[in-house]
Amino acid sequence: MEGRKLIVTIPLLLFFIAVFSVPPAAFGRKVAFPRKRMPKPCMNLVFYFHDIIYNGKNAANATSAIVGSPEWGNRTILAGQSHFGNMVVFDDPITLDNNLHSPPVGRAQGFYFYDRKDVFTAWLGFSFVFNNPDYRGTINFAGADPLMNKTRDISVIGGTGDFFMARGIATLMTDSFEGEVYFRLRTDIKLYECY
Amino acid sequence: MEGRKLIVTIPLLLFFIAVFSVPPAAFGRKVAFPRKRMPKPCMNLVFYFHDIIYNGKNAANATSAIVGSPEWGNRTILAGQSHFGNMVVFDDPITLDNNLHSPPVGRAQGFYFYDRKDVFTAWLGFSFVFNNPDYRGTINFAGADPLMNKTRDISVIGGTGDFFMARGIATLMTDSFEGEVYFRLRTDIKLYECY
Amino acid sequence: MEGRKLIVTIPLLLFFIAVFSVPPAAFGRKVAFPRKRMPKPCMNLVFYFHDIIYNGKNAANATSAIVGSPEWGNRTILAGQSHFGNMVVFDDPITLDNNLHSPPVGRAQGFYFYDRKDVFTAWLGFSFVFNNPDYRGTINFAGADPLMNKTRDISVIGGTGDFFMARGIATLMTDSFEGEVYFRLRTDIKLYECY
Fold first, then answer.
1. Distance from CA of A112 to the nearest CA of C (A)
2. Fewer Cβ neighbours under 10 Å: the N or C end of chain A?
3. Would you indicate the residue range of the signal peptide (chains A, B, C) (predicted)?
């Protein structure tokens, strides 16, 4: 009899698992998705990276350069209209604290461009590249960076090495900036898929 | 006895689940992957976005601008050879229907470039950015856009906020275009991984 | 009695599954992630692609072109300082072997840019686009390419068609190069998430 009860119980259990793991579909504009579960990250990491944009005078120190601009801009001074259309390639040092002169633990390599005319807003595609005893591998990122907001979330779209197949969210915060030449981003990485 | 039968049944069940969830490996050129299962989307969304390319005369209305071109091109007129090498940065309004003048529900922000000489073909990296009572968060996209095809599939590579950790497919359709200045894309988003 | 034993056994089983599926969280700089499991790929693919950069003289054969450069560069010759800041758009043939003249099975379409001043290093965003009886669909890639290394791992960030929702790792190897005009990359794709 107990066995029989179990036979009934297990399908029921599976049924409930099935029902509650399928999020409610949202069609068109109607959005009804109470967060089913807010998972815990499987990895938390905090880094800073430091961007020094080439401006025609700082070739020795610059870690990035303007490589594209709209017709009304050039490649030594960020354009008007909130730098709309300026594209920048960078190779920035990553540090564990907010000091530009701390020993770098890796490089942030990629590109960003400004994509709004009325307020400073960027879009980023880049990698954190690590090759030291503590970390070896890369974390790949992409997403929108409305940089006047205190925090901005972008996606961790993949990883290699120690960060094999990583997925997650990176929260960017502008930790400091000086004119239009230097800025420092704090990056809080939370991975929700680890292998 | 019933219980005993069950003890046998469960491992068998697990065994079958295991066997049928592992897709057959395909090596080299031999491809043998009968689609195991075509999952149902956990979220369906349909949006339109509208791109007005800066052409030297429409500064007030333009939502995008050419920021890169091959040596034989410039940044006010899309280049010959199917615009090969033209790179465009955009900040386009997103609407729920196909009317450019409908109230925008978000912004499509990112870049695309033309990457074929013999037929119009592009590659896109961008985000849908929402910040309203219905949706808050971003959806990030990347992929090839052979835009002469009626439909083209690109990848949803991540999401934040209401679209936390989203993955899926976006199907693009050119809904309308006017010369080389305006085009409208219908975007059918199907998410297959939701949290 | 057997049934009762089972009632005890199943929650225990679920408990162990739960415990061992949660990877250990790593906080801050402390990294402690013994690889829980190194999964087997669900798909292995090997391809070659061939890039011929436009240099002002090879318009007929070129498959790619410089579309962005730093202020100190131009769009017909790769810039000094390890080509830092040069951005290239490409539409390269994909072959099954290392012969440029083998029948192409698809196109590698996307962009790369050089992003280090002191050593040749690039960052790539691109798709493999297939449309033939063997493969139909796209695989999307992004990641850092420190191209002086023998092998470099980038991320498979998504896929469509036969590669629906793919995730994995692609290992790049420079198979050959001629001056600064031609290079050939071997790409070993291992997918760890297949549908």
1. 12
2. N
3. 1-28
